[in-house]
Design brief:
heterodimer, A: 6-stranded mixed sheet, 10 strands, B: 7-stranded mixed sheet
Chain lengths: 109, 126
């Protein structure tokens, strides 16, 4: 089955821009979706597909994709954006499975 | 607004069967897949499997031999059973709605999970 690789940890200064990446062969076939998870809470969808934001997600969150890499960009990071971020996509090996990345811990300095 | 409410036993002994149920309130049950995802303490998310209202399922190959996901459309509920649990199955288990964007050729272009249930911590210990 496919795998999605994320950097374990990323930091950003308050108000600056940060990009969190997700790499994997399945991303050549499927767009990624992105989830924010704060301690003790269920994940929350922040970006899905090409670059779609669910209702209620601030427009500082955006998504992009190129080749085998998907990216989540936070433009003007806020303190409340400090969280774990996970990407996911369908598995491209043909079995309709779903794969998640290992997650990125975002620290806002 | 769709809400998912889940419940089930939180403490199991090794070799027992984990059983969780998720109820869907406030939205359409058909037309979507419904999924289970788990997260071991301090670790990342792992997809377990999914089911649609017709009972069609897809499972994580690594868990397929032990997993059964079923649906009760009369109650807008779906359930997870995981047999022969071990300490490695200790995790927070989430249910979630799966949406798929399907092309005109019937190919899934991408999928996303939203909303999620509140999570249930299941501990396997002797």
């Amino acid at each position: 089955s496919s795998e999605l690789t994320q950097d374990p940890a990323v930091s950003v200064a308050l108000g600056q821009t940060v990009r969190i990446t997700c790499q994997g062969d399945s991303l050549r076939s499927y767009y990624a979706s992105w989830y924010q998870q704060k301690p003790g809470q269920a994940p929350v969808l922040v970006i899905y597909g090409k670059n779609n934001r669910p209702s209620g997600i601030p427009d500082r969150f955006s998504g992009s994709s190129s080749g085998n890499t998907a990216s989540l960009t936070i433009t003007g990071a806020q303190a409340e954006d400090e969280a774990d971020y996970y990407c996911n996509s369908r598995d491209s090996s043909g079995n309709l499975s779903v794969v998640f990345g290992g997650g990125t811990k975002l620290t806002v300095l | 607004q769709v809400q998912l409410q889940q419940w089930g036993a939180g403490l199991l002994k090794p070799s027992e069967t984990l059983s969780l149920t998720c109820a869907v309130y406030g939205g359409s049950f058909s037309g979507y897949y419904w999924s289970w995802i788990r997260q071991p303490p301090g670790k990342g998310l792992e997809w377990i499997g999914e089911i649609n209202h017709s009972g069609s399922t897809n499972y994580n190959p690594s868990l397929k031999s032990r997993v059964t996901i079923s649906v009760d459309t009369s109650k807008n509920q779906f359930s997870l059973k995981l047999s022969s649990v071990t300490a490695a199955d200790t995790a927070v288990y989430y249910c979630a709605r799966v949406s798929n964007l399907v092309t005109i050729f019937g190919v899934v272009e991408y999928s996303w999970f939203d909303p999620w249930g509140q999570g249930t911590l299941v501990t396997v210990s002797s």
